[in-house]
User: Fold this.
Amino acid sequence: MGIEIQGVQNPRISQEYPNKPQFPEGRGKLGRARPPEPVETKKDIGKSLDILREAFRMFNRRLKFSVNEEIDRVVVKVVDGTTDKVIKEIPPEEIQKLVARIRETIGILFDEEI
Assistant:
């Protein structure tokens, strides 16, 4: 009862799978992505930022990098070159406020670090 396929002994449990799928590099067991390893130096990051800034200048835009101390995150603002108006903020201000409130709430609930 059933269909026989040449080369397959038991369709439910395959003993050998010659075309075993290969996971891309950077993947661990179960195909989960591993966190990237920090390989760039400050000099490399500085070069990358200079390239980004120059690219944005071509579109009359500037990038402003800052650290929000309250949430301990880097904030990037895309600013119009002529009006100095903030066009985009990453992460958005609402998200920054939300993260701060969540951390504050966690601090109220759990006031002791282990």
